[in-house]
């Protein structure tokens, strides 16, 4: 059995508080968003070596069924797709599967399944925990039923299950791919060494290989990705989807002093960022955001999009009016000097 080396990362994040709330008739289009930042509409990006092409910002379903009800979820997804977005990220453990159900209901009501790329994760749900073959297969079929679809475009292994040999998990995923239930798959919460072991195991048993990686990465949390993971992602040509892209809301600029911590549900999580380094990062983001005529959150996400192999940061919105700050990042073109300034002030 291959020895596992597990790393653990929290999931979920908050989003910026907007200055204005657009009505359904004033929801900005991709072109309007691009005009705000003075750039052309963003191109779709390819996920690793797959044929999936996605908008450079994935909308997370981690709040659907938790802080966002059905009507709010529909409005968030309508706003996101109305601005050109096509990449929806969820998991079977989000709101005990409710997130997948709400996304499925939305797709069915809009009749747009073929227009969106659906990514979900298995391995952490209470009903189907772990990555043993029979459990993984059962979890995927349960996700398909909740999503109301016959295929998952991108399936992530939500954990690195040290109780199961990679070969067993990989063979189960390959069977699902051959059956058409899954198109491509990737890792989440895996170390660089484990990704290498997975690639070797895939070659040895002759099954499909990972094409994507979802990992904790943002201006305040860089070391985990920028070491071995970045090197392995480049070697294996993995499409990288950073989660916690806004550092639980800190990189929206919402939290600037201790009294601000009571403003949001993630206050306790972002308290660790309220230090000299964090405030320097916010000050630099403020300056760059002003130069582009956009939000602090947009610049923080745009910085991620300048990094090698990053395809689409994953960010969530609790309300539809927050989506614009997220999607606007895809059209921002930072200068080399601006990227260098952010690299410098955010260095640990």
Helices and strands in order:
Elements: H1 30-37, E1 45-46, E2 53-54, E3 58-60, H2 70-82, E4 87-89, H3 98-110, E5 117-122, H4 133-147, E6 152-157, H5 166-178, E7 182-188, H6 192-205, E8 212-216, H7 223-236, E9 239-243, H8 267-270, H9 276-292, H10 296-305, E10 314-315, H11 323-327, H12 336-346
Parallel strand pairs: 3-4, 3-10, 4-5, 5-6, 6-7, 7-8, 8-9
Antiparallel strand pairs: 1-2
Q: In which order are the strands of the major sheet placed?
A: 9-8-7-6-5-4-3-10
The CATH superfamily of the domain at 42-249 and 308-333 is: NADP-dependent oxidoreductase domain
Total beta strand runs: 10
Under CATH, the topology of the domain at 42-249 and 308-333 can be stated as TIM Barrel
Beta-sheet strand percentage?
Answer: 5-15%
Q: Outline the biggest β-sheet.
A: 8 strands, parallel
- Into which percent range does the helicity of residues fall? 25-40%
CATH class term of the domain at 42-249 and 308-333: Alpha Beta
Low-pLDDT stretches are: 1-39
The separation of the N and C termini measures: 36 Å
Shape: globular
Structural class: alpha/beta
CATH architecture of the domain at 42-249 and 308-333: Alpha-Beta Barrel
Radius of gyration (Å): 19 Å
3D structure, described in words:
- The protein is of the alpha/beta class and 348 residues long.
- The chain has a domain at 42-249 and 308-333: TIM Barrel.
- It is 39% helix and 12% strand.
- It contains 12 helices and 10 strands.
- The chain has helices at 30-37, 70-82, 98-110, 133-147, 166-178, 192-205, 223-236, 267-270, 276-292, 296-305, 323-327, 336-346, and strands spanning 45-46, 53-54, 58-60, 87-89, 117-122, 152-157, 182-188, 212-216, 239-243, 314-315.
- The strands form 2 sheets. An 8-stranded parallel beta sheet has the order 9-8-7-6-5-4-3-10, with helices on one face.
- A hairpin with a 6-residue loop joins strand 1 (45-46) and strand 2 (53-54).
- The protein is globular.
- The relative contact order is 0.18.
- The model is unreliable at 1-39 (pLDDT under 50).
